[in-house]
Specification:
Length: 1171
């Protein structure tokens, strides 16, 4: 029957389950059932050092079983001996180790019985060992002759195995054993033949029983070996005693097995055990033992032997080891053999064991029992521990089978099957429970289950019933059983919901029914959201030694947050939570940080997120990039005079493909040990045809390059030598250098070592005067220069240099033009004139000297000048010469930095590479007045609420006749905003102080003072100050100078002033509001401004801007004069302070004034500032 329902949008197929579940579930203890043995002892040893011995037997059943014991097949009463301690509701008993307990030794069996039947345990053997002892006996000495065979018997006492036997002397030193002297498996010591050094009186046999913690010793034995033979044939007291020093050589004779055993014997071994076959022989010389398998092959090509070949050992014996083995004892006198017929037997093992179960009334029963073994085991059936009487048993019974039909409740019983052969007995029990009960649902009612979307849900309904119950599941309020392919009912009644969805949440019911009755339980199912993980970054590529941070982003159901856990794995192996490798790898919850990444860090990193219901993984493959490994296995092939092929095997690229290979070479003739680059091979090629130079003993190495960098060089190749040849090229960079007028020094770049091409390298130099028909002059030299003397001054020559070696000459060389040595110019410039530009700058003109008077390459002109007197005071000056150099063939130059209102003299000379020519006649010129420099200082001498008194010093340089001073002031505030500027003109040039009135109380002012000449006013000196608040003036001096607090206040003000000065200095250096640029904007220098506008338009108007148009070529040509006050002091050399016309920019850039202004401004305040 099949129908379709639509519930919450899901189509559900309905079906009906009928299951037989009784046999699959263990019978609940609440149901009446037969006894079952749950725990029992096995063979046990009663060691004398134990306090007691426990014999276990536990069973379950309903009603709870009672226990009985048999010993050696007879009933055994646990109450018969007070040393036996029993437990309630248990078959286990304890034997206390008091007195003699030998009577407890035997084989015990436990029987557990209730009204339904009896269960029987396997036999439990209790072994009560006696303390092993050697008997006290007197052992007669053994007198033997050299070469005789001797056996020293040990006869160890019986005890619990394992048994270890040792032969030692009285000092506990082991008796040496070898092929001649050895111990048998039974512990006897065998001498194949004795020697005199075998004589001793302390042969002791020790028997060790480790499980008994006992070692016992046999009485010492004496062995005397003699070469003396006694002759006493007549019995006369004078009988002769003769020495017989002979050797009793004889063929081998087997002592184990003894000759009485015949030529063969049978050996039985248990399958899976160890086979030990022993042969010990006597004879002289000492026999050698060997083993063969007569029937079939040995288990191994080389059989395993012990005891110097006298024991053949086979572990884990199988049926294939069965057969005939032969040992052979041989010496030069003959041989002896013995055959062992090995039979492999085994104790009983089950093929089929009887299996019980729960049966309903009216069903049929078949129990099977089959066992194998060698010999074949006998089978015996028992019912409730007693042999079955076939006459009264209502079923059918045979050796391997019991059957019953139409079972009834009274047929419940325990059937036992016992299989026995001479190697042991095995027991199997089958509980046949015939029941007729309504279903029992063993799962608790109202269980709550949860799973996540997409997983399977398992709702349990464990049922016990007889007859078998029909089981069905329903959902929510529906009475129809669940169907569709997503629902599956397992044999144990569990409902499996596959590929769960949110709609599967709800209440479910399990129904079980049989002919006796029915039961039901409910279960609740919640469906949670599945856990999702993402690892970022995905598959990163990281440079070796860099760091990487992997982050695992997780989403999981909020109900599962308390059980959510994150872990990390690398290549499937979990990473420890604590930092690893010295903190290089750090796990912190959802992040994995790896610093200084190594190559071995590469791999797949997996983030594992788990909750109590599900788990999820996300992975990211970390790829570590590194420089390639060095190339390997360099090989040379295709050998030619000028080429060879180099091949190699690339190393690992470490995830960044090789994009280039650099081939380097080293030669050991010219520069041994120095590696040089030969060529580069693009891409990942691993072979290259190398072009080589002659006469070089090469070896090569290769460096691989990828996007990360270069590999280490490979190991060098074998050396490869090329034959010599004539040069392929001539020297380059041929030039002429001369230091004297009548000589010519020709120089050139020598050939590199690999360009020599052969031995005996020299240079053939050829030269002749240009334009003169004459033969070439030639000379061959080994160095790379040649000096020719007695040449005309500064004459052009044609020059050739050719490379030559022992195998020939290089190609025809090119001709180079060079000049012979220069001399000083012999003429001075003429027509020198000076054009005064302003008070500090003049322009000089001259006519250059003729070319033939230069006598060399004209390098330029030098202008020298010196101050003769000041026009201000008429005072003459000691001449201090200054000069400027003007490179090239030119006829004018600008001379900057002159003192205003002064008289100067000036000369001009030409110079070449040889040196300076004569100077021109001096020219006299005067500079006009200029603007004054800053006053030396500005101080505030007195202050009031509305007035201050200012005092200032004379300018450093007046640069003309002073006409007076301009005094300016303006209000400023803490935000550096300024008020309008007020001017006061002081026309008396002798006035050096002034009182300003009409100021505002408690106001900060900035004051400016600048000196003036007829040319204009110079740059100002500045100071800042604060007027006094109204009403405070009178109290300032009212006896405060004698007060201690006033002295402390003054100290504090001094410290505050120092702090303010420091802050001010820092801020001004950072380019604050009151920079030099601002001062120049507020108080422009009219003379400098006019010069800048008319002549130096390309100059920078601020020292904070870069200079334009400065001639870099002048930097290296300006030389210091004899004057310490040369223009080098102004930084014209390396700072490029000259314009293209040679004019000096420093005088107009404000660089010197800036230092003096800022060191004066705001730094000499003499009164406190009041807020």
């Amino acid at each position: 029957m099949e129908m379709l329902l639509s519930t919450k949008g899901i189509t559900i197929r309905l079906f009906f389950f009928v299951l037989s579940l009784a046999a699959a579930i263990e019978i609940p203890l609440s149901v009446s059932q037969l006894p079952t043995i749950t725990e029992q002892s096995h063979t046990q040893v009663a060691y004398p050092f134990d306090e007691d011995f426990t014999i276990k037997c536990e069973a379950r059943g309903n009603p709870h079983p009672t226990f009985n014991w048999t010993k050696d097949g007879k009933p055994f009463d646990l109450l018969s001996d007070p040393r036996i301690v029993t437990s309630n509701n248990s078959g286990t008993f304890v034997i206390q180790n008091r007195g003699i307990i030998n009577n407890f030794q035997g084989k015990y069996r436990c029987f557990a019985s209730n009204v339904l039947g009896t269960a029987m345990s396997e036999e439990i053997e209790l072994i009560v060992p006696s303390v092993p002892k050697f008997p006290k006996e007197k052992i007669e000495p053994l007198d033997v002759e050299h070469g005789d065979s001797v056996i020293l018997h040990c006869n160890p006492p019986k005890g619990i195995p394992p048994l270890h036997i040792y032969w030692m002397n009285i000092d506990l030193q082991h008796i040496p054993q070898d092929e001649r002297v050895s111990m048998s498996l039974k512990g006897d010591l065998y001498f194949a033949n004795v020697e005199e050094n075998d004589s001793r009186s302390d042969y002791c046999c020790f028997a060790a029983f480790p499980r008994l913690r006992t070692i016992v010793q046999k009485m010492p034995m004496t062995l005397k070996v003699s070469r003396l033979k006694h002759a006493n044939d007549s019995g006369s007291p004078n009988a002769a005693v003769t020495k017989a020093n002979f050797i009793k050589e004889r063929k081998p004779k087997l002592l184990i097995p003894p000759e009485s055993a015949g030529s063969s014997s049978s050996v039985t071994v248990i399958k899976g055990g160890v086979l030990l076959l022993e042969c010990i022989a006597e004879g002289l010389p000492t026999p050698h033992l060997s083993w063969v398998k007569v029937t079939g092959n040995m288990p191994k090509d080389e059989p395993e032997t012990e005891n110097f070949g006298k024991i053949l050992k086979i572990d884990q014996v199988s049926a294939a080891d069965e057969g005939t083995y032969q040992c052979t004892a041989s010496n030069p006198m003959g041989r002896a053999k013995h055959e062992f017929h090995v039979h492999v037997e085994e104790p009983p093992q089950w093929l089929k064991k009887p299996e019980g179960g729960v049966y309903s009334v009216g069903t049929n029963l078949v129990l099977l029992c089959e066992a194998i073994g060698n010999p074949e085991p006998s089978i015996q059936w028992k019912l409730n521990g007693m042999p079955i009487d076939s006459r009264t048993f209502r079923g059918r019974i045979s050796t391997r089978e019991i059957s019953l039909t139409n079972l009834q409740l009274q047929d419940s019983a325990v059937f036992q099957c016992e299989a026995t052969n001479k190697h042991g007995t095995i027991l199997a029990s089958a509980n046949v429970n015939v029941l007729n009960i309504a279903p029992l649902i063993l799962t608790s009612d109202g269980e709550n289950y949860a799973t996540v979307v997409g997983y399977s849900a398992f709702l349990h309904c464990d049922i016990f019933a007889s007859p078998a119950a029909d089981v069905r599941w329903t959902k929510d309020d529906s009475i129809e059983p669940l169907s569709t392919f997503r629902y599956e009912l397992n044999k144990n009644g569990t409902l499996e919901i596959k590929d769960t969805k949110k709609e599967d949440s709800g209440s479910y019911a399990c129904w079980a029914a049989n002919s006796v009755g029915k039961r039901a339980i409910t279960a609740n199912l919640d469906i949670r959201d599945a856990t999702k993980l993402v690892v970022t970054p995905k598959n990163p590529r990281v440079l070796k030694s860099h760091s990487i941070l992997l982050k695992c982003q997780a989403e999981y159901d909020s109900h599962l947050k308390h059980s959510f856990k994150l872990s990390w794995r690398k290549d499937g192996d979990e990473l420890p939570v604590n930092s690893t490798e010295g903190g290089r790898m750090i796990l912190d919850r959802d992040t994995l940080f790896i610093s200084s990444v190594l190559l071995e860090d590469q791999g797949v990193y997996t983030c594992v997120g788990s909750t109590s219901l599900d788990s999820a993984t996300a992975e990211s493959r970390l790829i570590v990039l590194d420089v390639p490994d060095p190339p390997e296995d360099l090989q040379l092939s295709e050998n030619q005079n000028r080429s060879v092929r180099l091949s190699w095997r690339a190393g690992s690229s470490h995830n960044s493909p090789v994009n280039e290979s650099i081939i380097e070479f080293e030669e050991n003739r010219w520069e041994p040990g120095r590696w040089q680059e030969l060529t580069r091979i693009p891409g990942d090629d691993t072979t290259a045809l190398l072009s080589l130079a002659p006469y070089v003993n090469y070896q090569f190495r290769v460096v691989s390059v990828n996007a990360v960098g270069r590999s280490q060089p490979s190991k060098p190749s074998l050396r490869y030598s090329t034959p010599p040849a004539a040069p392929d090229k001539n020297p380059e960079n041929i030039r002429v250098e001369a230091s004297e007028p009548n000589e010519m020094v020709m120089k050139w770049e020598p050939l590199k070592p690999v360009e020599r091409n052969g031995p005996g390298l020299e240079y053939k130099v050829s030269w002749r005067q240009r334009g003169v028909r004459t033969d070439w002059n030639e000379e061959t030299v080994k160095k790379h220069s040649l000096t020719v003397r007695n040449t005309p001054t500064f004459v052009p020559y044609e020059i050739k240099v050719q490379a030559v070696n022992n195998l020939g000459s290089g190609p025809e060389p090119n001709v180079t033009i060079g000049y012979s040595g220069e001399d000083f110019p012999d003429a001075a410039p003429s027509g020198v004139s000076v054009d005064v530009v302003n008070s500090t700058l003049v322009k000089v003109f001259w006519f250059g000297i003729p070319r033939d008077r230069v006598r060399g390459h004209l390098r330029g002109y030098k202008v020298s000048w010196w101050k003769t007197k000041s026009m201000l005071d008429g005072k003459r000056h000691h001449p201090e010469k200054h000069f400027l150099t003007f490179v090239g063939d030119r006829n004018y130059g600008m001379i900057p930095g002159l003192d205003p209102f002064s008289e100067f003299r000036l000369t001009v000379l030409a110079y070449n590479s040889r040196g300076d020519g004569p100077e021109s006649s001096p020219v006299v010129f005067e500079t006009p007045e200029g603007v004054p420099e800053q006053p030396r200082f500005l101080r505030i001498l007195n202050f009031d609420k509305d007035s201050v008194t200012l005092s200032w010093g004379l300018p450093r340089k007046a640069n003309g006749h002073l006409t007076g001073y301009i005094l300016q002031y303006q209000i400023i505030n803490e935000t550096h905003e300024v008020g309008p500027m007020s001017d006061v003109s002081v026309t008396n040039r002798s006035t050096l102080s002034w009182r300003l009135s009409g100021l505002s109380p408690s106001t900060k002012y900035k004051f400016y003072v600048k000196a003036c000449t007829a040319k204009g006013c110079g740059k100002p000196v500045t100071e800042e100050g604060l007027t006094v608040a109204q009403g405070t003036y009178a109290g300032i001096y009212d006896g405060i100078s004698t007060q201690g607090w006033f002295i402390g206040l003054m100290c504090a003000i001094a410290l505050l002033t120092l702090l303010l000065l420091t802050i001010c200095f820092v801020r001004r250096n950072k380019g604050g509001k009151y920079s030099v640029k601002e001062k120049e904007d507020l108080h422009p220098d009219p003379e400098a401004q006019s010069i800048k506008d008319e002549i130096f338009g390309e100059y920078s108007d601020s020292d904070e801007k870069p200079l334009k148009g400065s001639l870099q070529s002048l930097n290296g040509d300006i030389k210091a004069t004899e004057s310490a006050d040369s223009l080098v002091d102004y930084g014209e050399g390396e700072h490029g302070m000259f314009n293209e016309d040679g004019s000096f920019i420093g005088a107009y850039s404000g660089s010197k004034e800036k230092g003096s202004v800022e060191s004066t401004g705001s730094s000499t305040a003499t009164f406190p500032l009041h807020a």
